[in-house]
Amino acid sequence: MDDRVRGVAAGRADAGDTRVAAGLARTAPAASGRPVVECVGLTKVYGEGDTAVHALRGVDLRVEPGELLMLVGPSGCGKTTLISIIASVLDGSSGLCRVLGHDILRMRESEKPAFRLKHLGFCFQAFNLNPCLTAAENVAVPLLIGGWRYGQALARSRELLTQVGLAEKVDVLPDQLSGGQQQRVAIARAFAQEPDLIVCDEPTSALDSATGEKVLGLIRDMTHRSHRSVIVVTHDARIFRFADRIVAMEDGRIVPLPPGAGSGLPVVPPAHAADAGAAASADVLN
Amino acid sequence: MLVIALKTLFGHRIKVIGMVIGLAVASLMMTQQPATMLSILSRTYSFIEDVSQPDIWVMDPMVKFVDDAKPLADSKLGLVRSVEGVAWAVPIYRTSTAARLPDGNTANALLVGVDDASLIGAPATMVSGDTADLRRTDAVFVNDEGARLRFSQKLPDGSERPLQVGDILELNEHRAEVVGIAKTGATFSSQPVIYTTYTRARDYALPQRKTMSFVLAKAKPGEDVEALTQRIREQTGLAAYSAEAFKEMSLWYFIRNTGILINFGMITLVGFIVGAVVSGIMFFNFTQDNLRHFAVLKAIGASPRQLLGMVLLQSFLVGVIGYGIGVGLASGMALISSTFQIKFTPALLVFSAGGVVLICILSAVISLLKVLRLEPAAVFKA
Q: Rounded to the nearest 5°, which phi and psi values hold at A54?
């Protein structure tokens, strides 16, 4: 198993040493109280001169440990650009973006893959499951990238698929699963290496409302149980109630939430949201 | 990661089959065509190889290759023998003749007359009979390929019967009894080869004033062959070459004066290009189809090295399968070809494997450029 991910299986007890060795000092956002994500004056400009497109115009954002934050706004407002920069798959133009204490904008390209593998989980709108791999193998992908042995990775995948209610589907190919089931496999994959931050891009847009709610309930449950932070980009007002906090964007800026948009939000601090989520989890999984 | 690479590869069966077919055709052509060419070219000097004992071949200075023997006067034999450092020198005679078979048919053959006393020049390996049998009255040996193919006789029931020991041939109205079948290399023109003694060969052939084709000479122990060859040239005014040099001279004559190398080379090149294009396009297509999954792997945290390993493994695997099928087909074709013996040398197999590896690397590089330039942010596009 790769040192980079061994900490996951071993209850992360030894992960700190290996991460320091890899040049990525371990942070403990929950314990330290430091924000998981901290963006200050973050900008992103595509192109130059007259054709320049300002996708982000000085975004300030904090995501606290254990928080499920929803990023909402119309198409083209910069949501996906923002999470792409936070996820270190896209370079920002200026400003500050710290994720788990790491300055993403100044991080070397060669360090980014290892950073993402250790700290980030991804959940995509189009699920992005490999159609040639079984559900368990798809979940195992981050672990295999991390150097886990195939058998061990598959065993861990089965555990995760059981947690998301797909114990019977471990050996099934994605095209034999419903949309909701595919997204649950993707969620299990996002949680496989026990990341600190999970980034979800429109996770419910390809699902019907009931399934979408179940999927979000599952994300919230798994997040709060493990005290991880999640950023969900969505248009889907039906799932706003699962958020700990909602941040609205427009024209590349954070704007005040439209009246009524956040109604029904649980008025609990993120640290306590785990309890609320756990109560709902049994219903969701069943 | 390798499991992901393999499962992804074999999940696209049609493309894999396309790539494998492309590589199989390429390796078939890159193996079979050069093998055929080498087999043909090796026939240009097979006669020299069959006569294994002499170190030096002495001949008329105008001889350009082994089949181009220009008759020498018998007195030249004494000249060669008189050169210091020559352990022994014997004459050998080569000419074309027509042989009448037991069933009445005639076939052209190469007649070789070897030294009566020592039988030096006679084939070293006998399929049946013994070398000493050549001393018997009217005795001749026939090479096995000739006995099996050109000298085979049609029986009344329509079946073919190869020439056998005990059969009688007629050479220029002289009786010749087959006393042995010899194992020799095939000749360039696939003519049967008849071996007999030097004196008897002169009787079988049409009357000529000069009959000696070559003088075969052996260096004394410890004698430098190159230096002796030079001495023979200087003292006899004849051309003299070591066996290796004479083989090389004959080979290059055919390479320069026939289209063998260009024709076979072109077909081999076409095989390489077809294989490279088909497999390259298929592999690029396959990668293109999987770009999104490569982007996901990049986003999750796969390093460029891991992605490189995946693409190379996929390319290498289809290469191995395609090469195996191609070489298998080439071997099968060689096996079912009874009239033409194709030799697959290790160097040839390494050559065709190298060609397949080159195709795989080219295909992988084209795909890798696409994969490595891929923005992982693409995963967030629906």
A: -90, 95
Question: Would you state the structure tokens that stand for residue A53, as one six-digit string?
Answer: 């497109």
ipTM of the complex: 0.77
Report the gap between the CA of B315 and the closest CA in chain A (Å). Answer: 17
Q: How far apart are CA A63 and CA B259, in angstroms?
A: 76
> pLDDT at residue A274 above 80?
no
Contact by Cβ (8 Å): A206, A179 = yes
Name the residue in chain A with its Cα closest to that of B292.
A128
Q: Are strands B168-171 and B86-100 parallel, antiparallel or unpaired?
A: antiparallel
Q: Is B8–A130 a contact, with Cβ atoms under 8 angstroms apart?
A: yes
Q: Number of folded domains in chain A? A: 1
Measure CB to CB from residue B380 to each of A80, A141, A142 and give the nearest one: A80
Which residues constitute the domain of residue A131?
3-285
Burial class (CB in 10 A: 0-12, 13-18, 19+), A6: middle
B285 vs A: CB within 8 A:
no
State the CATH number of the domain containing residue A179. 3.40.50.300
Residue A257 Cα, gap to closest chain B Cα (Å): 24
On whether any CB of chain A is under 8 Å from the CB of B15, the answer is no
Q: What sign results for the dihedral spanned by CA atoms B238, B244, B246, B249?
A: negative
Look at the pTM and tell me if it is higher than 0.90: no
